[in-house]
Amino acid sequence: MSEKNILALSFKPLGDTPKVYTDPVMIEPNSSNRWDVDTESTDGDENKKRGNWSNQFDFILSCLGYAVGLGNLWRFPFLCFKNGGAVFLIPYAICLLLIGMPIFVLELYLGQFSSSGPLTVWRFSPMFTGVGIGMMVASSLVGIYYNIVMAWALYYLFASFTSKLPWQDCGDWSSDTCITKLPDISGCNTTLQEVAYPNGTCYNANGTLLGVYNDTLLKQYNITRSSAAEEYFFNTVLQVGSGLETFSDLTGISWQLSLCLLLAWIIDFFCLFRSVKSSGKVVYFTAIFPYVVLIILLIRGALLSGSLNGVEWYIAKADLSKLRTPEVWLDAITQIFFSLSASFGGLHALSSYNKFHNNCLRDAIIVSLGNCLTSFFAGFVVFSYVGYMAELQGVDIDEVAKGGPSLAFVIWPSAVATIPVSPLWSILLFFMLITLGLDSQFTLLETIFTGLLDAYPKIRKHKVWVHLAVCLVLFGLGLPMCTKGGLYLLDYVDSAINGWPMVILGLTELIAVAWVYGAYPRYKVIFLRAIEDMKVMLGDSLLLKITAPWWTLCWILIAPVLLGVVTVVSWILYKPNPSYFGEVLQWLVRFAIVGPIIIYPVLYGIYCLIVRPKDKTFIRPQRDWGPSLVKHRRLVTYDPNFVTDPYHEEMGLTTRNGKETPSGNVNVGYVY
């Protein structure tokens, strides 16, 4: 390429006056305009085109809000109750140290080091791009049903602005087995022509149901009385049908829920239309407010009768025999993935907006520990109300303790309905649930946005329209969950995602970084390029020096082996869905997540063999892998083949560690 052409490429218009940059080395990738100046912008961003977090606290709060979600509130406490109480903390802590935290650190490092989201971060080994596609699919599916839960919470929030909560008593919307319609009575008075039925119920002479005179007979006939809150949730809010066996069961859409769902997506759009610049400010409220409300709810719950019994069931009754069952360990690992949001691509997306020298290792430790402590703390709040409801209903705690949506939309509404000034407590509760879910939803959507904008940088200048298009598409895909079969559909999708598919994504990611990216003939296996990359970012960090051997051991050996074992055991213990429709749907979801791991490298490999047989980037790093800015790429000195300025190379020169040589016939892969 001639000198004239080189200088032509170094022109870039700024406003009305073009400016000539005479140093063609000072350029930057990953933008809609490929040739950009390697300098900080006037607003303090290192990466002018992608942007950066306004400050470090924005990032930490966003990560914490992403990790701390509804699962911390309704899944973790129930798993503790199910798996031996405090004993569950043992496998949970072990899995956190051996699997959860190492993957959390790994994903933050990858995103920050390369300034790339989940689709383009795999330039260190493009054959693993299918993992990023699987992460995008998983985040999209979770984002769809997460906003459905937000729609439920919005419905309850609006319904709470009243003098008397609608689920406080059984209304016209309830069935005959609703508890206030089926009260306990002392017996049937035959002198008043009351009739005692064999199932334990009593009717008057006019055929009107009076109540239950014998609860034992009622249970023998498999008749279960339900609370007003339970019937309100299933019959009024969700209008649940009998099941989901065919597509015809996805009918009877609720216009109230649909409007709430639309509102949820409108909130998402306006909070994210400026990407991390806007969401980074919203999280100051949405990440902190739930903690304030949880503390208030804990104080109020501790004053209720029976609350100590609930807390005792949660933490004090330890069953060590549970540690011998594989299901407990599977639950612990699954919860770690779900709670830390590992392998969903969100951590890559969030950290990709960090400045290059941000201490992501410190942030990872703070957020992962903070998330798990939040789960533990939320259990005290939850079970204080579970114990209260058990005493109020005169039943054992295990008859009240339920995980999933029933906890947030049945048990808690039942509890607040019995407390003085119940509408105020209900408003506080559901507003907390909304803010708790919004943080996670923001990052799920940011994962999609970042992946698309990084993969197709030309659309970055239209990112507001991209955000709008994504929100509209996902809103449309979520509408079937507003039908009578919507709850079953949500449950099928949730169960399919939060299991071995996410474990396989995490396992493949570890293999890619530790054994493919880090295992070159010139280096010993114990040498891990990921650690060297982190040294470039963090410099002389004492924390990295202390923990580097641990991350190396976990990434190379411990975590992959454990995840491999978990995957095999999950397949052995697999139980098919009793619904044929549900089973087929769940396998389609699993294939959509895991399938790209196999399909992408096969198709990409065939393409390389036919079109570019000499291309070595199929497994090895591409020349533009690494820091986004050239000034940071110059810090990578441990690899003699690392290309300091791959964009300069396209002009006819190769720059390796600052040494400029003629490139000749450029091979776009590393040479070893």
TrEMBL record:
<dbReference type="GO" id="GO:0005886">
    <property type="term" value="C:plasma membrane"/>
</dbReference>
<feature type="binding site">
    <location>
        <position position="440"/>
    </location>
    <ligand>
        <name>Na(+)</name>
    </ligand>
</feature>
<feature type="transmembrane region" description="Helical">
    <location>
        <begin position="585"/>
        <end position="610"/>
    </location>
</feature>
<protein>
    <recommendedName>
        <fullName>Transporter</fullName>
    </recommendedName>
</protein>
<feature type="transmembrane region" description="Helical">
    <location>
        <begin position="282"/>
        <end position="303"/>
    </location>
</feature>
<feature type="transmembrane region" description="Helical">
    <location>
        <begin position="86"/>
        <end position="110"/>
    </location>
</feature>
<keyword id="KW-0769">Symport</keyword>
<feature type="binding site">
    <location>
        <position position="65"/>
    </location>
    <ligand>
        <name>Na(+)</name>
    </ligand>
</feature>
<feature type="transmembrane region" description="Helical">
    <location>
        <begin position="365"/>
        <end position="390"/>
    </location>
</feature>
<keyword id="KW-0915">Sodium</keyword>
<dbReference type="InterPro" id="IPR037272">
    <property type="entry name" value="SNS_sf"/>
</dbReference>
<keyword id="KW-0479">Metal-binding</keyword>
<dbReference type="InterPro" id="IPR000175">
    <property type="entry name" value="Na/ntran_symport"/>
</dbReference>
<feature type="transmembrane region" description="Helical">
    <location>
        <begin position="332"/>
        <end position="353"/>
    </location>
</feature>
<dbReference type="Pfam" id="PF00209">
    <property type="entry name" value="SNF"/>
</dbReference>
<feature type="binding site">
    <location>
        <position position="339"/>
    </location>
    <ligand>
        <name>Na(+)</name>
    </ligand>
</feature>
<feature type="binding site">
    <location>
        <position position="371"/>
    </location>
    <ligand>
        <name>Na(+)</name>
    </ligand>
</feature>
<feature type="transmembrane region" description="Helical">
    <location>
        <begin position="131"/>
        <end position="158"/>
    </location>
</feature>
<feature type="binding site">
    <location>
        <position position="436"/>
    </location>
    <ligand>
        <name>Na(+)</name>
    </ligand>
</feature>
<feature type="binding site">
    <location>
        <position position="68"/>
    </location>
    <ligand>
        <name>Na(+)</name>
    </ligand>
</feature>
<feature type="transmembrane region" description="Helical">
    <location>
        <begin position="499"/>
        <end position="520"/>
    </location>
</feature>
<feature type="binding site">
    <location>
        <position position="439"/>
    </location>
    <ligand>
        <name>Na(+)</name>
    </ligand>
</feature>
<feature type="transmembrane region" description="Helical">
    <location>
        <begin position="550"/>
        <end position="573"/>
    </location>
</feature>
<feature type="transmembrane region" description="Helical">
    <location>
        <begin position="464"/>
        <end position="487"/>
    </location>
</feature>
<keyword id="KW-0472">Membrane</keyword>
<feature type="disulfide bond">
    <location>
        <begin position="170"/>
        <end position="178"/>
    </location>
</feature>
<dbReference type="GO" id="GO:0046872">
    <property type="term" value="F:metal ion binding"/>
</dbReference>
<feature type="transmembrane region" description="Helical">
    <location>
        <begin position="57"/>
        <end position="74"/>
    </location>
</feature>
<feature type="transmembrane region" description="Helical">
    <location>
        <begin position="253"/>
        <end position="273"/>
    </location>
</feature>
<feature type="transmembrane region" description="Helical">
    <location>
        <begin position="410"/>
        <end position="434"/>
    </location>
</feature>
<feature type="binding site">
    <location>
        <position position="67"/>
    </location>
    <ligand>
        <name>Na(+)</name>
    </ligand>
</feature>
<keyword id="KW-0813">Transport</keyword>
<keyword id="KW-1015">Disulfide bond</keyword>
<feature type="binding site">
    <location>
        <position position="72"/>
    </location>
    <ligand>
        <name>Na(+)</name>
    </ligand>
</feature>
<keyword id="KW-0812">Transmembrane</keyword>
<comment type="similarity">
    <text>Belongs to the sodium:neurotransmitter symporter (SNF) (TC 2.A.22) family.</text>
</comment>
<keyword id="KW-1133">Transmembrane helix</keyword>
<dbReference type="GO" id="GO:0015375">
    <property type="term" value="F:glycine:sodium symporter activity"/>
</dbReference>
